[in-house]
Specification:
alpha+beta; Alpha-1-antitrypsin, domain 1; seven-stranded antiparallel beta sheet; six-stranded mixed beta sheet; single chain
Length: 398
C-alpha cells in the first residue's frame, strides 16, 4: 500500500481522538471518515476550511490528493474493499476542478424521489460491503443536494486459527457468564508485549491474518478507560510508548491479564504463548455531528452560505454525518465493515524432568482492538468489546 507517512499519521491521529471519547462497546473506522473530510476541506473556505484542515491533519490544498492516494492505496490491500460515492441533484452544478479529484465513476444522481433514492443508496452500501452493512446511514431528504459516502469492508483469515472452548471468567464484569472462548498456543512470544503508557500498562496481542491485515487485542489496567487503552494502541503503532516484548517479560504478573510461569514438561519444549480470548461480534452507529468539532464540522454544519465555494456555487452545509460499522472476531478470522455518509492428555504419570516457560494471556474482561495494516501500521478499524458472544451448548466446540 503506497500511502505517505503523513497521511497514515493523520488518519491514526483521528482514530486516537475518536477513541478518546469511547465509553461502551463500539466499533468505528476513522479510515472511513477521513477521505470525506479531506475532500470537503479541499472545497471549503473560511472557518470551515480551517476546522476541516485541523481535523484531517494535512493542508487543505493537498487534502483531496491525499484522499485519492489513501483510497487507491487501500484498494491494493488484499482482503480490503473500499469505495467512495457521490450523489447529487441534477440541478446542483459542481465545480469541475473539485469533481475531477473524485475517483472515476464515483458520481451518481439523486432523483428527488425519497423511496428510489433510499433504495439506490442502500443497495450501494450492501454491494460495497458484501452485505455486512445493509443500509446507508443517512437518508436523502427532499432538500438534500448531495450525499458523499465511503464504504470499507475487511475480511481476513488467521494464519493459525483458534480452537473454540468454554470461557467462564471468575471475576470482573463478565464473572458468572459462559462465553464462547477461543484458545491457541504458539512458540512466537513476540506476538505479545506490554506497553508502558501514561495511563497505565497495556497488554497488546497481535493476531496475524492473511493479506497483511492483523488484529491487535488490547487489555489495560482495570481502572483505565476505553479511550486510554485504545489510545495506547495507537501510540504503540506510532512507536511513542516503550514496549516490553514477550521474550523479555518477567516471571509472574507481567501485565494486565498476562502471567509468565515455568511449568514442568515430559520433554524439552520451547517457550510457549498461550492465549484465551472470547469471540465477539458487534454493530454500532455513530452520529458525527454529536461532536462536530472532533471531525472539523462545527462550522460546516451551520446553515449559512459560504462553507464550500470550491465544491459548488450553490450554498451547502453538512446537515447529517453518520457511520454504521460492524466487526466480528471468531476462531477462523476477522471481518469488519463501515459505511460513512455525509448528507451532504494421557497414560499415567510420567516423570517430569524438564520445564518450559509459558506466557499465558487471558482476555476475560472488556478490552479494545485495532485492525491494522501490517506494513504501514495504519489502523483500519477500532473498537471496544463489552458484550462477547455467549457459549451455546447446542453448538459445541468446532
Amino acid at each position: 500500500m503506497r500511502v505517505t507517512p503523513t497521511t497514515i499519521r493523520a488518519v491514526n491521529a483521528l482514530t486516537g481522538r475518536w477513541a478518546a471519547a469511547t465509553s461502551g462497546g463500539t466499533v468505528f473506522s476513522a479510515v472511513g471518515v477521513w477521505p470525506l473530510l479531506a475532500l470537503l476541506a479541499d472545497g471549503a473556505a473560511g472557518a470551515a476550511r480551517a476546522e476541516l484542515t485541523e481535523a484531517v491533519g494535512v493542508p487543505a490544498d493537498r487534502a483531496a490528493g491525499a484522499a485519492r492516494e489513501l483510497l487507491a492505496g487501500l484498494g491494493r490491500v488484499r482482503g480490503l474493499e473500499t469505495a467512495l460515492g457521490l450523489w447529487t441533484r441534477r440541478t446542483l452544478e459542481l465545480h469541475e476542478e473539485w469533481e475531477a479529484k473524485l475517483p472515476v465513476g464515483a458520481h451518481g444522481v439523486l432523483t428527488g424521489d425519497e423511496t428510489s433514492d433510499r433504495e439506490a443508496l442502500d443497495a450501494w452500501a450492501v454491494r460495497r460491503t458484501g452485505g455486512l452493512v445493509d443500509r446507508m446511514p443517512v437518508a436523502a431528504a427532499p432538500d438534500t443536494e448531495m450525499v458523499l459516502a465511503s464504504a470499507l469492508a475487511l475480511r481476513t483469515r488467521w494464519l493459525r486459527p483458534f480452537e473454540e472452548t468454554y470461557l467462564a471468567p471468575e471475576s470482573g464484569p463478565w464473572a458468572g457468564r459462559g462465553l464462547r472462548g477461543l484458545w491457541r498456543q504458539s512458540a512466537l512470544l513476540d506476538r505479545i508485549g506490554v506497553a508502558d503508557t501514561p495511563g497505565g500498562r497495556v497488554t497488546g496481542l497481535a493476531v496475524l491474518g492473511h493479506d497483511a491485515v492483523d488484529v491487535h487485542l488490547l487489555l489495560g489496567e482495570v481502572d483505565m478507560t476505553p479511550g486510554q487503552v485504545l489510545g495506547a494502541g495507537i501510540g504503540v503503532l506510532a512507536r511513542t510508548h516503550p514496549v516490553v516484548p514477550g521474550p523479555r517479560l518477567p516471571y509472574g504478573e507481567a501485565g494486565p491479564g498476562l502471567r509468565v510461569v515455568r511449568e514442568p514438561t515430559v520433554t524439552p519444549e520451547p517457550p510457549t504463548l498461550d492465549v484465551t480470548t472470547p469471540a465477539y461480534g458487534m454493530t454500532a452507529g455513530h452520529d458525527l455531528l454529536e461532536r462536530p468539532e472532533r471531525f472539523g464540522l462545527a462550522t460546516a454544519a451551520l446553515p449559512v452560505p459560504g462553507h464550500f465555494p470550491g465544491v459548488s456555487a450553490h450554498p451547502l452545509c453538512v446537515r447529517a454525518a453518520r457511520q454504521s460499522a460492524v466487526a466480528r472476531f471468531d476462531a477462523r478470522g476477522f471481518e469488519a465493515a463501515a459505511v460513512t455518509a455525509l448528507g451532504v492428555p494421557g497414560a499415567g504419570m510420567p516423570r517430569l524432568r524438564w520445564s518450559r516457560t509459558t506466557v499465558r494471556a487471558v482476555f476475560d474482561r472488556p478490552f479494545g482492538f485495532l485492525a491494522v495494516h501490517r506494513h504501514t501500521r495504519l489502523a483500519l478499524a477500532a473498537g471496544w468489546v463489552t458484550d462477547p458472544e455467549p457459549y451455546r451448548e447446542d453448538e459445541g466446540c468446532h
